[in-house]
Amino acid sequence: MLTIGKLGNAAGVKVPTIRYYEQIGLLPEPERSAGNQRLYGKSALERLAFIRHSRELGFPLEAIRDLLSLSDRPDQSCAAADIIAKDQLAAVDARIARLTALKAELERMIAQCAQGTIADCRIIKVLGDHSHCSQDHRISEAVE
Amino acid sequence: MLTIGKLGNAAGVKVPTIRYYEQIGLLPEPERSAGNQRLYGKSALERLAFIRHSRELGFPLEAIRDLLSLSDRPDQSCAAADIIAKDQLAAVDARIARLTALKAELERMIAQCAQGTIADCRIIKVLGDHSHCSQDHRISEAVE
DNA sequence: TCTTGAACCTCTATCTACTAGAGACATTAG
DNA sequence: CTAATGTCTCTAGTAGATAGAGGTTCAAGA
Ligand SMILES: [Zn+2]
Ligand SMILES: [Zn+2]
Ligand SMILES: [Zn+2]
Ligand SMILES: [Zn+2]
């Protein structure tokens, strides 16, 4: 049995984060020692590792919640898991597209700065007026 | 003079967001009408447009605060503005790098799924164990 | 002039995914 | 036994807004 600190070390997750996951129902309430300290077994470690890795791949906690409940039903079709993963891929693609547009605009802005005074600075000018921009980085404001 | 709704329309910013910017000191407190409603002039519109465009380019509000105070001192060197913009570009680059690694891993994962049961699903397997991954998407966890 | 409806006011709470700290109890090493 | 570390609960804070409650003000039509 692992204390919360050992579990955190083993899974690469900080202790307060583990308690947070328990609080929001992502991890089940574990056993307690005589002194009221949490004690975890192997399955908790696996579950936490699953959560951590999913977070590293950018899945939101709600998606992870769904993935976990899917993984508890091994006989079912994995179509639902597929959909979640594809949604995540689409979200990542959208972010990359947006960030790439931002990057181009930032580079253009920085390249045009002549290192003079604020009054002449292209960076300040461009920030004040989108018409100085070359691209439509305004699209898909929802994502970032 | 513009009411808050007209200002929001003109700048493309929602009304509660304008009040929020005022609350955190990013916009100065405007005049009020006899009935206590906010009234804005041209300079407030310019300032708000600057904020909006900077947000669209991904600058955090604290950076925008600094940029605004720079733009109030037209005679100064723009070196500080340059640094802020370059920092932002570096942050965008880091995010793109991380997201690109995630994208590759997600695509690999999805491609390997044979559309069978959860028990055999590569998506679930990979999420449970990073050693199934081909890349080090773990690096630079701080950013996303 | 009266009235309706939109726009405005303040204040509080909510969202994501945690992180930090206070003050108290438990455990372990020396 | 004591000191250090670990753990407990609880609250509050982070970014950048958004949403709602409950109340006022404004502009236009009848
Ligand atoms: Zn410049
Ligand atoms: Zn622009
Ligand atoms: Zn599958
Ligand atoms: Zn991995």
TrEMBL record, chains A, B:
Listed InterPro entries: DNA-bd_dom_put_sf (IPR009061), MerR-type_HTH_dom (IPR000551), MerR_fam (IPR047057), Tscrpt_reg_MerR_DNA-bd (IPR015358)
GO molecular function, a single term: DNA-binding transcription factor activity
Domain HTH merR-type, chain residue ranges per copy: 1-70
Official protein name in the record: DNA-binding transcriptional MerR regulator
Native source species: Albidovulum denitrificans
Swiss-Prot/TrEMBL keywords: DNA-binding, Transcription, Transcription regulation
Matches recorded under SUPFAM superfamilies: Putative DNA-binding domain
